[in-house]
Amino acid sequence: MLYDDAEKWSREEIEKAQIERLRRSLQQAAASRFYGALFREHGVNPDAVRGLDDVRRLPFTTKKDLREAYPDGLLAMPHADMVRMHVSSGTTGAPTVIYHTKNDLDWWASLMARCMHMVGIRPTDVFQNMSGYGLFTGGLGIHYGAERLGCLTIPAGAGNTKRQIKLITDFNVTAVHIIPSYALHLANVLRDMGVDPASLPIRFALVGAEPYTEAARRRLEEMFDMKVYNSYGLSEMNGPGVAFECTEQHGMHLWEDAYIAEIVDPETGEPVPEGELGELVMTTLGREGMPVIRYRTRDLTRFLPGPCPCGRVHRRIDRIAGRCDDMIIIKGVNIYPMQVEAILMAMPEVGQNYLIELDRVGVMDQITIKVEVKEEFFVEDMRALTGLQKRITSRLRDEILVTPRVELVEAKSLPQGEGKAKRVVDKRGTDS
C-alpha cells in the first residue's frame, strides 16, 4: 500500500517533475541575496535548464556559504511569509539558519508521513518521539510526520530514560524515533531494571542522526524484537524525511520528487561511477522560502544499483558511511570509525560501547581502541581474555590496515550518555 501517487512514479515521470521543479527552485533562489549574486557571477540562467545534466554546471553551496549568509542571506521570500526557522548549534563558527513557509512545513510533514507509512506504521500505531525538540530539526520533523499520518504522537523528547520506559509501557507504544547509541543505552537500563527489552510493545524503530553499522542494527532488532529502519535527513534539506528504508531494508529511497541527489568525489567535485562511495550533494525541489542548490552535505554514501524489490523506482542510497571530515589518518592510512564498529558489533563477546583514542608516542601516531566486553565474557581467565584481545586486534588490522592497541574493559565502564555517542578522542594536538 502506498501513501501517495509520487511513490509509484516511473523514472520518466520523476525526471520530468525534477526538471520543472528545478527551474522553479532556481528562479526562487535567484530572489535571495546570496544566490542572486552567485548566479550572476557564474552566469546561471534558470530558464536555460533543459535536462538534469545541466545541474552539474551549477555552482556548489557549502556550509561556509550558509554561515557567511547568516542570518537571512538565503531568504527567497519576505520575512513575513516565514512561519518557522531552525538554527544549527554554531559551535565552530556562525550558525546556519533554515527558514520555512507554511507550504514548506506542509511538504515536509507529507514526506515524513510517506516514510513512516512505507515501513508499515499506520494511524492505529502509538508513536513516541525520543528525540530533542527545539532548534534541532529531528524532533519536530518526525513529530509532524507522525501526526500527519494520524498516529497518537507522544513528544517525549530526549533523555530521562526511566520516564521513556514508563511511557512506552503505560501507553502501549508501538513505534519510536531514537538514535542508535541511545537505543543501546536504553537496553542496558532495562536489563538493570530486570526487564527484557523484547517484552516492550515496540514493533518499529526509526533511527538516524549518527552513523551505525548493519551489525548494530541487527543487534538492536534481536534485543527488542522489533524492526529497525534507517532514516536520513539534514537541516539544510528540511531534516528527517529526505531518504528512508522500505521494508526490504536494503538502502534508503531518496524522494526524487523533492530532491535532486548527486554523489561526487569529495576532492574533485566530479561525479563518481554508479555504486562507488562519494560525497552526497543535494538540491531542494519543493522548498519555496529558502531553496538550497547543490549543497555539499559532507556525508559519504553511494547509489545502490538495480531495482528495489518493493517496486519503487526512487533511487536508493546506502547507509551513511561517515562524513568526509570524520576520516582518521594514522600512519598514512585513511580510517573511518564505521569500519571499526562493523568489526566490533559482529563479535558476540563485545558489549554496547567502544572508544577510539588517537595519541602520539614520540613522533609516531598511535590508535587505541577500548572495547567493552559483555559481563558473561569478562572472566578472570586471562587466557580467554587474551585470546579475545588477539582476535579483535587481528580482525581490526585486516580491516583498517593498521595494527591498533586493543584494551578490553568491563561492560558499562566507558562514558555513555543520552545523546549522540562520542566514538573518537584525538589527543594528538592541533599539529597532527
TrEMBL record:
Top class in the EC scheme: ligase
UniProt xrefs under PANTHER family: ENZYME, PUTATIVE (JCVI)-RELATED, PHENYLACETATE-COENZYME A LIGASE
Species annotation: Desulfolutivibrio sulfodismutans
EC code: 6.2.1.30
Keyword Cell inner membrane: no
Name of the molecule in the record: Phenylacetate-coenzyme A ligase
Segments forming domain AMP-dependent ligase C-terminal: 332-428
Domain AMP-dependent synthetase/ligase intervals: 78-282
